[in-house]
Amino acid sequence: MEAPSSRASGSASLACREPRSYTPGIVQTADGDPALPPRHRWAAWLVFVAALAWLSIGAGRRALWQDEASTALLGERLLETGRPLAFDGTNLLTMDDFRAEEEAEIGAAMKSTSSALSYLTARGDFAADTTWTGQPWGSFALAGLSETIAGKSELALRLPFIACAAAAAALLWWVLASRTGTASGWLGVAVLLTNVFWFVHSRQCRYYAPSSLWALATFAAYLRWRDDRRFGAALFVLAAVVWFQFDFGSPFPVLAVLALDALAFERRRLPETLGVFALVSLLYLPSILYFDLADRLRPTDLPLPLRAAGLAFYVNQYVLPFAVGAAALGLFSFSRRASPNARRIVALALAIIFGELAWMSYASPYPFLRYVIGLAPFGAMVVALVAVEIGRRLGAEPRAAAAIAAGVCALQIASPVFAAPLSRMLSRDLGQQLEPGPFVRAELDVLWSELAREAPDPNRAVVDALRARLEPGDEVLANYENLPLAFYLDVPVRGGIAGFRVEDAEPARFVVLRRTVDFVHWPPYERALAKARYRRLPIDAPDVPWGNNPDPLAHWSRIPSPAPSLILLERDDPARR
Questions:
Q1: Do the beta carbons of residue 62 and residue 457 sit within 8 Å?
Q2: H or E stretch covering 127
Q3: Residue 18 to residue 339: CA distance in whole angstroms
Q4: What residues does each domain of the chain span?
């Protein structure tokens, strides 16, 4: 249970302050701070170690896919040059996002390096000196440092991100255990670590896990600051600024919710509150200007209602079932029987989740789960606290209450029963594809696949096949998953969604084609193939669009099998026979 503020505060906030009282298992330090007994502090380390081990199982089995390779390449270039360069003189990274009306102009622009760089700079993919501005650089630094220390091992590249996810689990335990009791802490961690797609995204060499960690750290530091505890304001500013170095999209709605809570309900601290949020804004300003965030919102082919429906489906399915959110409102907002500490956490967590959902529906180009999965710790908080509150009210004695709470969380972990009532109403298409049954979560098979299942890895197969044949001066043309080839093979790779240098005068020696990729402009590839004679090489790699994609619709375990082999071609050069 949190300690009361030593400073008088205003009226009750989105969640009321806890009156001074005693909760078993929680003590107060000399200055009034809530603290767990030493044996429980060790439990947070136990959560971190166990989560790290759990999240690492099989994490190095599959090769990097397009998005992960982008992070790894930019990490290499950041450490080599001090800047994450989109173009290193050989290979080019783009935003991999082109609308249908751009096909004609992008095809013309990509025919030469100079015209491609000019077009993409004007489009906003990177700065005039080709410094990458598509994402902040925190994840690139993690990947680059990891590669420098441990090499190009997939596990080594993913391990810093897995460690961030494990730290998020430990911090979740600490926040819940120190404020509402250890039971909610253990249940919250269980719900989070068995959230299948948070698990999958956390094992990516990508910004998802660091963003999730620092979102939770910002929340925890905010609570500490508003409780008027030592270093609370400084820790809040630090956490918010570090979060922005990994994800410059998600913090805005969260900070807006926290600012509203602070300004509306503790007016006696108004100057301090304004000063702290003004400092955060000032520290954000250089990045806002450098990354040109005011001009980041691009037109998209998908209307706002469809983006909102898709993201709402994902939140309901994989972050927090709306039915549980409604139960939380009933149990905590309209009842004084609940703990003020729990009421405070639930109210803020709900406001954060739905504020982020509204913002991402407007700001994101497509309804990808990656935009909201970082909120899974907040959903786990709400589920755990709702479960504990239900157990407390229905259980006649502590063991019964604990069993009821565990049962509620087990239902959330194993079954879509809480999400099912609204899933198809939110998105009929996604509901049909991702939740075929009402009783057992369809994604549990994804979890098993990540942990133990062996399956063809097209990216590794292509890399191995090309590595055995490449000679100095060779170039590769690939219509997609071109960045893993550039990362692993360190050779010039043409193509990608942008079609970079596809129609060079000298045909590439090797060509990798995925016919299942329907989001590239095909005519330049067809013209390039017509310039030379190619022969097909045997390869045991299915023709699927992605390698290790974490998205629910694109995960490798959900791709139909068997699939035809992708196309690997070698130029028929008589001189090499």
A1: yes
A2: none
A3: 8
A4: 27-46+163-450, 458-576
Q: How many CB atoms lie within 10 A of CB 568?
A: 22
**Highest mean pLDDT of the ranges 60-69, 89-98, 302-311:** 60-69
Average pLDDT over every residue of 134-155: 96
Half-sphere exposure of 38 (CA within 13 A, CB side): 0
Token readout for 219 is: 């929340």
Res. 36 pLDDT band, cuts 50 70 90:
low
The tokens for 426 are 């939110």
d(CA 446, CA 552): 9
Tokens of 107: 């095809």
For residue 259, the model assigns a pLDDT of: 97
Asked if residues 566 and 514 have their Cβ atoms less than 8 Å apart, the reply is yes
* Euclidean distance between CA atoms 184 and 388, whole angstroms: 6
249-253's contacts with Cβ under 8 Å and 24+ in sequence apart are 249/360, 249/363, 249/364, 249/371, 250/211, 250/215, 250/356, 250/360, 250/371, 250/374, 251/215, 251/218, 252/359, 253/352, 253/355, 253/356, 253/358, 253/359
Q: How far is Cα 155 from Cα 144, in angstroms, rounded to an integer?
A: 14
Per-residue pLDDT averaged across 515-539, rounded?
A: 92
Structure tokens at 396: 């006649």
Instruction: Report which of 177, 205, 139 is spatially closest to residue 41, judged by C-alpha positions.
Output: 177
501, 576, 574, 566: which is closest to 536 by C-alpha? 566
Residue written as token pair 């068997």: 562
Relative orientation angle of helices 251-265 and 232-244, to the nearest 10 degrees: 160
Q: Which residue has the higher pLDDT, 384 or 339?
A: 384
Whether the CB-CB separation of 140 and 71 falls below 8 Å is answered with: yes
Do 412 and 418 form a contact (C-beta atoms < 8 A)?
A: yes
DSSP 324-389: HHHHHIIIIIS-SSS-HHHHHHHHHHHHHHHHHHHHHHHH-SS--GGGTGGGHHHHHHHHHHHHHH
Lookup: tokens for 324: 């549980």
Is residue 524 within 8 Å of 490, Cβ to Cβ?
no
Pairing of strands 476-478, 493-495: parallel
CA atoms within 13 A on the CB side of 274: 5
Measured distance CA(200)–CA(60) in Å, rounded: 12
